[in-house]
Amino acid sequence: MTAAKSASHMPYVGIASFLKAPVCADLDYLDADVGVIGIPFDEGTMNRPGTRFGPRALREQSSLYEQYLPGEGYYDIELRQTILRGVNIVDCGDVPIQPLALEANHNRMTQSIKTMLSRGALPISVGGDHSITYPVVQAFSDIGEIGIIQIDTHADVFTFYESDLTHGSPMINVARNCPNVTKFVQIGMRGLMLGEKDYSDSIARGNVIITSDEVRSIGVDWVLDQIPEMPYYLTFDIDSMDPSIAPGAGTPEPGGLLYHQARDLLRGVAKKGPIVGFDLVEVNPLYDPTGTTALLATRLVVDFLGAIFHERQARSERRPAAAEA
């Protein structure tokens, strides 16, 4: 490798696309296994703004994980295996957001994800505040029955504001307006912002609610046992993590998950059924000048992608064996 080529792999050199992946400026020409799209939107924020800068922060931190040899993936020493070998990842840029144009912004989010799905790519949305999950999930209306796994501090079912399109209400909006979403599994719940009636109503509808304390005290394996098998969309709010390792969150709360707990949850979720898409939201770099939160978020995205494609391969290998039997 020449000195010039070697230098091009430095994190501080070149365009800061996600994982320094190729960029697709026009989704109609997307040709990839995975499309990563930024949604720099934080007009649904009720606490502290700044998550609109989340996608850019993740891209910058993700430069650390550039694939030196495209297509070769990453060797994960803890797994003793290579992940994402042969998986084509493309950065799809950002959904164009116009200030105060809520309906137009939501429509662009939905249409962007629909286009990515039509091109056969697994869509990954990077926010932005958690309100983006509702218009994103609307893009999956034609793919059949799915469940949602939400890893978060808050249940996001608030309805007492004049507008229910805040980052505190995406789950209630999905429940009301996305009939193909038939199951909700909420993991990591903690704090003082879920009303008793909201909790009891959710349980009565057959939803699964698992607290942060239950993850810690009973364990990840037990949590995974509570999740039925079916296709899932996953939404991951970075405030589910402990503020000691993720201070740059939109609405932080004392306590929370640690990295290995979240990683093991994501690996287990990938085994529960096909993952149709996922988002990672609420990274607020204005409250974390170290970049630690964005780096953690990036690593969780890579870990989850590795698990998704490992399970895809395992399922494809099992199908011929089942057919022969």
UniProtKB/TrEMBL annotation:
GO MF annotation list: agmatinase activity; guanidinobutyrase activity; metal ion binding
Cofactor requirements of the protein: Mn(2+)
Cofactor note as given: Binds 2 manganese ions per subunit.
Record's keyword terms, sorted: Hydrolase, Manganese, Metal-binding
Stored Gene3D superfamilies: Ureohydrolase domain (3.40.800.10)
PROSITE patterns assigned to the protein according to its UniProt record, in alphabetical order: ARGINASE_1, ARGINASE_2
Record Pfam families: Arginase
Record-linked InterPro entries: Agmatinase-rel, Ureohydrolase, Ureohydrolase_dom_sf, Ureohydrolase_Mn_BS
Enzyme class, UniProt record, top EC level: hydrolase
Binding-site residues, Mn(2+): 130, 152, 154, 156, 237, 239
Entry's EC annotation: 3.5.3.7
GO biological process terms, semicolon-separated: putrescine biosynthetic process from arginine, via agmatine
PANTHER family with a match to the protein in the record: ARGINASE/AGMATINASE (PTHR11358), GUANIDINO ACID HYDROLASE, MITOCHONDRIAL (PTHR11358:SF26)
Family: Belongs to the arginase family. Agmatinase subfamily.
Protein name: Guanidinobutyrase
Organism: Capillimicrobium parvum
